[in-house]
Specification:
Elements: E1 9-20, E2 24-25, E3 31-32, E4 40-43, H1 45-60, H2 76-82, H3 88-98, H4 100-105, E5 106-108, E6 118-120, E7 123-125, E8 128-133, E9 137-143, H5 149-156, E10 163-181, H6 183-189, H7 193-204, E11 217-227, H8 237-243, E12 244-248, E13 260-264, E14 277-282
Antiparallel strand pairs: 1-10, 1-11, 2-3, 4-8, 5-6, 7-10, 8-10, 9-10, 11-14, 12-13
Helix pairs in contact: 1-7
């Protein structure tokens, strides 16, 4: 096992979607999520966490110490109750050692007969928000096949119309997510340097193994990470995020990644001067 991380991190993750629905809203007939006030697109934090979990599961095949706690088929109360140790702290330690997502994102473990309290994870994501207003395109789709013999007979007599459905997409949108990694909380869950590298790897591959017709083309575009000098950090997160600039090139609605100007502001005196490492990973 690699050592637990000693430095605080903040990061900005940019990704885009073309002709797809990055995160449907079940309260709005599965239309792409949007801010009701200004119509900027939204993708929830749990949506991106799900993609991270799925990638780790594919790579490590549910083997300890990179098993996945929150996944389909798991009965969580049974896992918690079967964790060894009479004390809550012992059960928490076992679950953190065994499950990557508990060690990374934390978990509510207070259910079941025994319970294991609550673990606050060192890694937290914000909602992703589009850089511009989105258009929620709603398309009619039809199916020529039928599901029953009765429908087939009606179709032969031209008494049965094709089955119609709906499909919602965003023509194009660039989304921006902010992330925080606490070295203080990492000490509690033993979130390690290897775990951190796996997180970066998961974000860069988040959409490669999650393809679906409904999601269209989704691609990571840029990951900007700020590594602080210490566990407490050198600057406030908001200061750092304000340095990452993403603006449309002209007044027209952006239709692709190259329709944006992006960069990191380098102030003559400011929070970046105290940093030993600022990395920018490009995926284009």
């Amino acid at each position: 096992m690699s050592p637990t991380i000693k430095n605080r991190y903040d990061f900005v993750f940019l990704f885009d979607v073309k002709d797809g629905n990055p995160n449907g809203d079940p309260d709005q007939a599965n239309l792409p999520r949007a801010d009701a006030e200004n119509q900027e697109g939204l993708v929830t934090d749990v949506c991106i966490k799900r993609k991270v979990r799925n990638y780790v599961q594919l790579k490590h095949r549910l083997e300890t110490p990179n098993n996945i706690f929150i996944r389909q088929g798991n009965i969580l109360n049974n896992i918690i109750d079967e964790s060894p140790g009479e004390e809550i702290e012992h059960r928490q330690d076992h679950l953190c050692q065994s499950y990557y997502d508990v060690r990374t994102f934390g978990a509510v473990l207070s259910t079941g007969k025994k319970g294991a309290g609550t673990v606050r994870g060192p890694v937290q994501f914000t909602f992703s928000r589009s850089m511009n207003r989105i258009y929620q395109a709603d398309h009619s789709i039809s199916r020529c096949a039928v599901t029953t013999e009765e429908e087939a007979k009606k179709q032969e007599k031209r008494e049965y119309a094709s089955t119609f459905g709906r499909k919602a997409t965003v023509p194009y949108a660039l989304y921006r997510m902010h992330g925080f990694i606490s070295a203080v909380d990492a000490q509690k869950t033993k979130f390690s340097e290897d775990d951190l590298e796996l997180l970066w790897e998961s974000l860069s591959n988040a959409f490669e193994h999650d393809r679906a017709a409904a999601r269209g083309e989704m691609n990571p575009r840029k990951l900007i990470t700020f590594k602080h000098e210490s566990h407490l950090g050198n600057a406030r997160s908001g200061q750092l995020f304000d340095l990452v600039r993403v603006t449309p090139c002209d007044g027209n609605p952006p239709r692709g990644w190259n329709d944006y100007e992006r960069g990191i502001t380098s102030p003559t005196d400011g929070p970046l001067e105290a940093f030993s490492e600022v990395t920018v990973k490009h995926f284009v």
